[in-house]
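Quick one, probably user error.
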């Protein structure tokens, strides 16, 4: 079956063909401008993060005490994450959220 069999269609306008191009769309310049703006913001963000991490690396290279404390911090962080991932709580049958149960416990232990 060819696109000539159906009037008003062409392979250029076929989404399934993968080559759909909005040729005469009035939104095309707007989309192009939004994409370029997003790319500029993303590039700026990446450059800022790179400069932050580069200055942090220079600081850690010059300061041995900060290097030791950063290693201690990362070890503690990893141990905490492992604890969170390995610990499990039994699944309760009620459908109440933990916040509601916690608030009920606070209200019940108030001595009122």
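Nope, works fine. Designed sequence:
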């Amino acid at each position: 079956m060819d696109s000539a069999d159906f009037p008003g269609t062409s392979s250029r306008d076929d989404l399934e063909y993968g080559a759909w191009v909005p040729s005469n769309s009035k939104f095309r310049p707007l989309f192009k401008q939004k994409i370029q703006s997003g790319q500029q913001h993303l590039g700026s963000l990446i450059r800022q993060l790179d400069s932050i991490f580069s200055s942090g690396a220079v600081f850690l290279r010059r300061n041995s005490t900060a290097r030791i404390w950063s290693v201690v911090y990362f070890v503690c962080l990893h141990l905490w994450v492992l604890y969170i991932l390995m610990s499990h709580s039994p699944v309760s049958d009620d459908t109440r959220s933990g916040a509601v149960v916690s608030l009920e416990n606070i209200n019940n232990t108030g001595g009122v």
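The chain is about 60% helix and 0% strand.
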